[in-house]
């Protein structure tokens, strides 16, 4: 990655650059920490979304997560192949299928969440705990607007 000198102070100081750099670094850390668990960060996000929810169709889940239908099908196919989710007929409407976590998915979710937490801790290692809490709170405020 380019150094701050390579980029110059105007680009290096931009919020867009700082947020993107943090995201790229976090994605790399997630890839490293989640590899031994056998899932990707996107798959983890979908498992987290499905946990403890009323079952929804893959189209509903895709819409809520802002994922296009093709990408959602790929994610679900991968998770289903790993035995972590299942598509089942909706009890209230047999014409549609809903997506649910399997027992294996719930167990994998625990392990993957721990790996994700380790990746986040590594990214934020230079911050004191109150700063980590503050950063999360500030990002929540910014993204809630």
TrEMBL record:
SMART domains: HTH_MARR. Pfam families: MarR_2 (PF12802). The keyword Transcription applies. GO terms for molecular function: DNA binding; DNA-binding transcription factor activity. InterPro entries: HTH_MarR-typ, Tscrpt_reg_MarR-type_CS, WH-like_DNA-bd_sf, WH_DNA-bd_sf. The keyword Transcription regulation applies. Keywords: DNA-binding, Transcription, Transcription regulation. SUPFAM superfamilies: Winged helix' DNA-binding domain. Residues 12-144 form the HTH marR-type domain. Coiled coil: none annotated. This is MarR family transcriptional regulator. It comes from Solirubrobacter pauli.
């Amino acid at each position: 990655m380019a150094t701050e000198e390579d980029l110059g102070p105007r680009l290096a100081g931009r919020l867009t650059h700082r947020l993107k750099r943090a995201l790229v670094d976090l994605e790399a850390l997630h890839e490293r920490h989640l590899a031994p668990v056998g899932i990707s960060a996107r798959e983890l996000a979908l498992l987290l979304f499905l946990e403890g929810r009323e079952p929804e169709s893959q189209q509903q889940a895709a819409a809520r997560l802002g994922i296009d239908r093709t990408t959602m099908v790929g994610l679900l196919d991968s998770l289903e192949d790993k035995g972590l989710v299942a598509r089942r007929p909706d009890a209230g409407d047999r014409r549609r299928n809903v997506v649910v976590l399997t027992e294996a998915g719930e167990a994998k979710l625990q392990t993957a969440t721990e790996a994700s937490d380790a990746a986040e801790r590594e990214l934020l290692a230079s911050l004191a705990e109150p700063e980590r809490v503050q950063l999360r709170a500030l990002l929540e405020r910014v993204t809630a607007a």
